[in-house]
Design a protein that fits this description.
globular; binds zinc ion; 23% strand; 11 helices; 27% helix; alpha/beta; single chain; 5-stranded mixed beta sheet
Length: 295
């Protein structure tokens, strides 16, 4: 349940001007307003599962459309019944929607969304309803241009350098110089994973492997690990195990049980940090930069 100062679960990812929303708990539109973000920049909403604390904000977000013009379609991706939820909400609430909504139901492992520069994969979790994790993976980036190599190969400083940097070969008389001859090795893009509402599942660490940032449920402290198993949720320590196993950069805990006070959350964090030191507690409206690992 939402608490004053602790909203329900929702993560917004901003990448090159595009907004991607992961889950949409009650009141998400208020957070969007507080962040002064333009909701029409949201191109895709990824839903983990259809429990109320992850979807009750969705109708409000869809109805914001009556306030702004929107030309691009909105895609909603989630496990089975998300289509029914969206359609029933539209119908019963008589929503005025002046843009296209595309709903895609997913259940299992695979690429669920592709766009220039990145793709998003899903992974099936183990919860009391079909529930999936998501990982956004950027394409590899070209290697660093090495001017000395270009000069050695007789390519003069100037426009030919930019041609090579953009990945196109250049011709010097009868000789061709290819980009890979003047560039260092290709560099990885970034990866961000989002996993919540699940018992520990095999393959979780592999799915999030190499993420620069993992946002993962840390609902309970270890003394309630039996409750976590019964209710199919993760403890903060289990989130840390996944982060450790997947060698992620940082772990942001989310989806805390409302039973915990702010002081008690520090205890959850402590349990996580004993396993994975780069864990932190995510907070409402917190903004987290995700730089390239090599920058
Ligand atoms: Zn749930
Ligand atoms: Zn939940």
């Amino acid at each position: 349940m939402p608490l004053p100062g602790r909203s329900l679960t929702s993560v917004l990812l901003r990448r090159e001007g595009e907004l991607l929303l992961f889950d949409c708990g009650e009141g998400t539109q208020i957070s969007l307003r507080r962040l002064a973000l333009r909701w029409k920049k949201i191109s895709v909403i990824f839903i983990s599962h259809t429990h109320a604390d992850h979807v009750t904000g969705l109708p409000g977000i869809l109805m914001l459309s009556s306030q702004v013009e929107r030309d691009d379609p909105l895609t909603i991706i989630g496990p089975p019944r998300i289509r029914e939820y969206v359609e029933a909400s539209r119908r019963i609430l008589d929503m005025y929607i002046n843009y296209e909504i595309l709903v895609k139901e997913v259940w299992g492992e695979g690429v669920v969304h592709e766009a220039p520069g990145y793709r998003v994969r899903s992974y099936p979790l183990n919860h009391s309803k079909p529930c999936v994790a998501y990982a956004l993976e950027e394409d590899e980036r070209p290697g660093v241009f090495v001017p000395e190599r270009a000069l050695e190969l007789g390519v003069p400083r100037g426009p030919l350098w930019s041609t090579l940097q953009s990945g196109t070969a250049v011709t010097l008389g009868s000789r061709e110089v290819r980009p890979e001859q003047v560039m260092g090795p290709r560099r990885p893009g970034r990866k961000v994973s989002y996993m919540t509402d699940t018992a520990l599942v095999p393959g979780a660490a592999d799915f999030v492997r190499g993420s620069d940032l993992l946002i993962c449920e840390g609902m309970f402290a270890q003394d309630l690990s039996d409750d976590a198993v019964d209710k199919k949720h993760l403890t903060a320590a289990q989130a840390a195990q996944i982060a450790q196993g997947g060698a992620v950069g940082r772990l942001g805990l989310i989806h805390y049980s409302p039973r915990y006070t702010e002081r008690e959350l520090k205890g959850l964090l402590q349990e996580a940090r004993e396993i994975f030191p780069k864990a932190f507690l995510t907070r409402d409206l917190q903004v987290i930069d995700i730089p390239y690992a090599d920058s």
